[in-house]
């Protein structure tokens, strides 16, 4: 396997014999100073078994998206080796964010209190660039930089909203309230768009029935008991 991309919590691999593409889920978790936080841009530590758990959760939620007519890059999973087989797509360095409540970086950027509800949900698109602090980016700049083609920016936001509805409903059945999440979206040679990367507690924030916001490690344990 050739490593195409090495990320904080996952690597993208390619089988050079048949051209198939895989994502390797690692045991690393984002955070800072030993505190885990799905919104962080640095690795906060490692937890044995986290990668396999993340793959199991992603497998479940990608299947749920497909059942709701939301296309994904998921093609199969080898849980034991932490590998997810995926479609070979163009994946721009963008994150599509949907917020149901104010939290995290939004509160810091705009001096807002935590927990203010958004109705309708608030969407943002950010450029994946740690050095620049993942700045917000517009459709015009995405097209100018060659990241997206005409019309894909708002199509990706439409898909993000669809993901949010499915995710919010499913997590509510697990007694969890979805605060916000971020996804990545790729496209094929025909421009068709797919949800890519992962769908795990590494990409969302939730509040439990006691009002606590569990970190991604705690939340994964809760989710694993439900699926």
Please outline the helices and strands.
Blueprint lengths: L1 E5 L3 E5 L6 E5 L2 E5 L2 E2 L6 E4 L3 H18 L6 E5 L4 E4 L7 E8 L2 H7 L6 E11 L11 H6 L7 H21 L3 E12 L5 E4 L7 E5 L7 H9 L3
Antiparallel strand pairs: 1-2, 2-3, 3-8, 4-5, 4-6, 7-8, 9-10, 9-11, 11-12, 11-13
Helix pairs in contact: 1-5
Task: Explain what this protein looks like in three dimensions.
It is a single chain. The strands form three sheets. The chain has a five-stranded antiparallel sheet. With 227 residues, the protein is an alpha+beta fold. The protein folds into two domains: 2-86, Phosphorylase Kinase, domain 1 (2-Layer Sandwich); 94-214, D-amino Acid Aminotransferase, Chain A, domain 1 (2-Layer Sandwich). The longest helix is centred in the C-terminal third of the chain and has 21 residues, at 152-172. Helices cover 27% and strands 33% of the residues. A hairpin with a 5-residue loop joins β11 (176-187) and β12. The two termini are 31 Å apart. The chain has helices at residues 50-67, 104-110, 139-144, 152-172, 216-224, and strands at residues 2-6, 10-14, 21-25, 28-32, 35-36, 43-46, 74-78, 83-86, 94-101, 117-127, 176-187, 193-196, 204-208.
């Amino acid at each position: 396997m050739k490593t195409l991309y090495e990320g904080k919590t996952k690597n993208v691999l390619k089988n050079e014999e048949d051209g198939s593409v895989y994502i390797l889920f690692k045991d690393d978790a984002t955070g800072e100073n030993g505190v885990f936080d799905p919104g962080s841009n640095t690795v906060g530590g490692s937890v044995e078994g986290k990668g396999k758990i993340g793959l199991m959760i992603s497998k479940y939620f990608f299947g749920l998206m497909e059942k709701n007519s939301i296309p994904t890059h998921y093609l199969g999973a080898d849980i034991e080796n932490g590998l997810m087989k995926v479609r070979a797509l163009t994946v721009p360095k963008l994150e599509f964010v949907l917020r149901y409540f104010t939290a995290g970086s939004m509160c810091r950027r705009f001096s807002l209190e935590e927990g203010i509800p958004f109705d309708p949900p608030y969407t943002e698109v950010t450029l994946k660039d740690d050095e620049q602090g993942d700045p917000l980016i517009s459709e015009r700049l995405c097209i100018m930089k060659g990241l997206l083609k005409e019309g894909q920016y708002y199509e990706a936001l439409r898909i993000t909203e669809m993901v949010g509805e499915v995710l919010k409903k499913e997590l509510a059945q697990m007694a969890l309230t979805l605060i916000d999440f971020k996804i990545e979206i790729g496209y094929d040679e025909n421009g068709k768009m797919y949800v890519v990367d992962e769908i795990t507690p590494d990409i969302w924030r939730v509040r439990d029935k006691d009002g606590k916001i569990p970190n991604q490690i705690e939340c994964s344990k809760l989710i694993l008991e439900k699926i």
